[in-house]
Design brief:
Blueprint: E1 8-9, E2 19-25, H1 29-33, H2 35-45, E3 50-55, H3 61-69, E4 74-80, E5 83-89, E6 92-96, H4 98-101, H5 103-110, E7 117-120, E8 129-130, E9 133-134, H6 139-146, H7 154-167, E10 174-177, H8 184-199, H9 201-210, E11 216-219, H10 227-237, E12 245-247, E13 252-256, E14 272-274, H11 278-301, H12 307-311, H13 314-328, H14 340-351, H15 360-363, H16 367-385, H17 390-402, H18 420-429, H19 432-439, H20 448-451, H21 454-470, H22 472-477
Parallel strand pairs: 1-5, 2-3, 2-7, 3-6, 4-12, 7-10, 13-14
Antiparallel strand pairs: 4-5, 8-9, 11-13
Helix pairs in contact: 5-7, 7-8, 8-9, 11-13, 11-16, 11-17, 13-14, 16-17, 17-21, 19-21
Length: about 475
C-alpha cells in the first residue's frame, strides 16, 4: 500500500489535442525530470497542441517501448530527504529509436510540418566537437558523411532531417541544446553547419538563415535510477512505474530568447527567456558542476558512495564551500541580483539531500569532456591573475588518481570516458610524476598554453603527490 500522504498530481489537460511539435533527442533521466516537467507544467497552465516525440539513438530502445506501453505517461518524484512529491507527465505522444523503428522514421519526423523545436540532452560527447568545430575525424561523423541515408549521430540525423525540410519547402526549426556545455547553442549550431556544409553548401546556407540555436542553462540534480530508487518510487506510488524517475525539488532553466518560430510557453512554468545565457551558465558550471566534479573524484577516492555522503563529512563540506567561494566565484561575471554566498549555501543544502543517492562514480563519468569547462577554465583565469587555486589543483589531481581505477580503500572505480583506452595505457605503463606528465599530454583536456605554464604543471604534480602520500581527507584538511 502507498503512503496516503503521497498524492499523485494527475494530468489536467486533454492529451488527445497534442501534436508532434517538439522532438527530444536523448530521452533519458534528465530529460524526464527537467525538460518534460517544464513542458508538462506549461501545458497545465496553458493547454496547447505542443506534444513531444521522445527519441534515443543508441541504447534505450526497450525503455522507450515500456513508455509506449504506458501510453507515454510516466511519474516524476521530487525527493527531499524523506518526502516525495509525485506528478504524472503526459506530454510525450510518441517514441522513436533508429534500431527499433528505422533511421528514416526519425528523419521524416524532423521534416513533419508540425515540428517546431528539437531539444537535446545528448551529453558533451554527442556533439562530436574538436576545438569548437565538428570533428571530421570522429568515426561516427565520418560514417554519417559517407553514408547516403542512415546517419547514426545526433548531428548527422538533425542535419539530414533539416535537408528533408528544406527540400519540402518547410520553415526552419529551433534546435535547443540542454546539455552542460558552455555556449551549447553556438557549438550545436557550428557542428550542424559544418556537417551541412560537407553534405550540401546550399543546405548550410539555409540552416544559417532559417534555423535558430539558442543556448540554455539547465539545473536539476537527477541521479540514475537504481533498484533501491525504483523500490522507493513503487512504495510511494503503490505500484511500480518502470518509466518513473526521482529527482530533487529544485529546477532552473535559462534560455536564450532566439527561436525560429513559435516558442513553447515554458516561462509559465518558471523558465527564464533572456538575451544572454552565459553569466547564468558559467555560474552553474563552475559553482555547481565544478564542485560536483571535485566531490565526485575526491569523494570516490576516499570511499564516499554518494554526494550526500561527502556532505556528511565536515572536511568535504568545508572544502566544497571554499572551492565555490574562494576559487570558482572570483572567476565569474555574476548575474545581477544573485548573491553568490546564498547561492553556495543553497548548493550545499541541495548536495546534502540524502534522498538523492547521487553516486560519485556517476558524476565522475566523461571527465575528459567535463574538466575543461568546469575546472580548467577557472584555473586559466587564476594563472592569468596570479591567484592561488589549491582546491582546484586537488580536483584535477583527483581525476588523475581516479582514472587509475582504484579507490584508497581498494575498491574498483569505473573509468567511463571517451579517452578511457588512452588513459588506461598511461595508467598501466607509468606511475607517479611520469603518469601525471603523460596525462598532461591529453590535448583534448589540457590546452597547450596552460600545460606550457610551469606554475600549472608544478601545482598539478604537487597535488598528485600530496594525494598519493597523505590521502584525500588529510590533503583537504591541510587546506581548511
Amino acid at each position: 500500500m502507498s503512503d496516503p500522504t503521497f498524492q499523485v498530481q494527475k494530468i489536467p489537460y486533454d492529451r488527445s489535442m497534442l501534436r508532434p511539435r517538439i522532438l527530444h533527442i536523448g530521452f533519458g533521466a534528465f530529460a524526464k525530470a527537467h525538460v518534460m516537467v517544464y513542458h508538462d507544467e506549461a501545458l497545465k497552465l496553458d493547454p496547447t497542441d505542443w506534444g513531444v516525440v521522445a527519441a534515443r539513438l543508441n541504447s534505450g530502445a526497450d525503455e522507450l517501448t515500456l513508455l509506449d506501453q504506458a501510453g507515454g505517461v510516466f511519474t516524476v518524484g521530487e525527493m527531499s530527504d524523506d518526502d516525495i512529491r509525485l506528478r504524472e507527465i503526459g506530454s510525450v505522444i510518441r517514441t522513436l529509436h533508429p534500431k527499433r523503428d528505422g533511421t528514416s522514421v526519425l528523419l521524416v519526423q524532423i521534416a513533419d510540418p508540425d515540428m517546431s523545436v528539437i531539444t537535446l540532452t545528448i551529453t558533451e560527447k554527442g556533439y562530436c566537437l574538436a576545438n569548437g568545430r565538428l570533428d571530421l575525424n570522429n568515426p561516427g561523423i565520418e560514417r554519417d558523411l559517407a553514408a547516403s541515408g542512415d546517419p547514426a549521430t545526433a548531428i548527422g540525423i538533425i542535419a539530414r532531417g533539416l535537408h528533408l525540410r528544406k527540400a519540402a519547402g518547410l520553415a526552419g526549426l529551433t534546435v535547443l541544446s540542454c546539455d552542460n556545455l558552455p555556449s551549447n547553442g553556438r557549438l550545436c549550431r557550428q557542428a550542424i553547419l559544418d556537417f551541412a556544409d560537407r553534405l550540401d553548401p546550399e543546405l548550410a546556407a539555409w540552416v544559417d538563415a532559417e534555423c535558430r540555436f539558442p543556448s540554455s542553462m539547465v539545473d536539476r540534480i537527477t541521479p540514475a535510477m537504481t533498484d533501491q530508487s525504483q523500490q522507493k518510487l513503487e512504495t510511494a506510488l503503490g505500484r511500480p512505474d518502470p518509466n518513473g524517475i526521482l529527482c530533487e525539488p529544485f529546477r532552473q532553466w535559462v534560455i536564450e530568447d532566439s527561436f525560429a518560430g513559435d516558442r513553447p510557453a515554458w516561462n509559465l512554468a518558471g523558465a527564464q527567456f533572456v538575451a544572454e545565457v552565459a553569466p547564468f551558465e558559467e555560474m552553474k558550471l563552475r559553482l555547481l558542476n565544478g564542485t560536483h566534479s571535485f566531490l565526485a573524484y575526491l569523494g570516490a577516492l576516499a570511499g564516499k558512495e554518494t554526494i550526500s555522503d561527502c556532505m556528511a563529512d565536515p572536511v568535504f563540506q568545508t572544502a566544497a564551500k571554499r572551492l565555490m567561494l574562494e576559487e570558482q566565484a572570483p572567476t565569474l561575471d555574476v548575474p545581477a541580483g544573485i548573491d553568490v554566498s546564498s547561492y553556495a549555501d543553497a548548493l550545499i543544502e541541495r548536495f546534502s539531500n540524502t534522498a538523492l543517492r547521487h553516486k560519485t562514480t556517476q558524476i565522475a563519468s566523461d571527465g575528459s569532456q567535463k574538466l575543461p569547462q568546469r575546472l580548467l577554465a577557472p584555473i586559466r583565469q587564476h594563472l592569468e591573475a596570479n591567484r592561488a587555486w589549491p582546491l582546484a589543483a586537488l580536483a584535477v589531481a583527483g581525476w588523475m588518481h581516479y582514472c587509475r581505477g582504484k579507490s584508497e580503500t581498494g575498491e574498483f572505480l569505473p573509468v567511463n570516458d571517451p579517452l578511457a583506452a588512452r588513459i588506461a595505457e598511461f595508467a598501466t605503463q607509468s606511475d607517479g610524476p611520469e603518469y601525471v606528465s603523460n596525462m598532461l599530454t591529453l590535448t583534448a583536456v589540457f590546452e597547450t598554453e596552460v600545460v606550457g605554464s610551469q606554475d600549472f604543471t608544478s601545482r598539478i604534480h604537487a597535488a598528485y603527490a600530496q594525494l598519493e602520500t597523505d590521502g584525500v581527507v588529510k590533503s583537504l584538511s591541510t587546506l581548511s
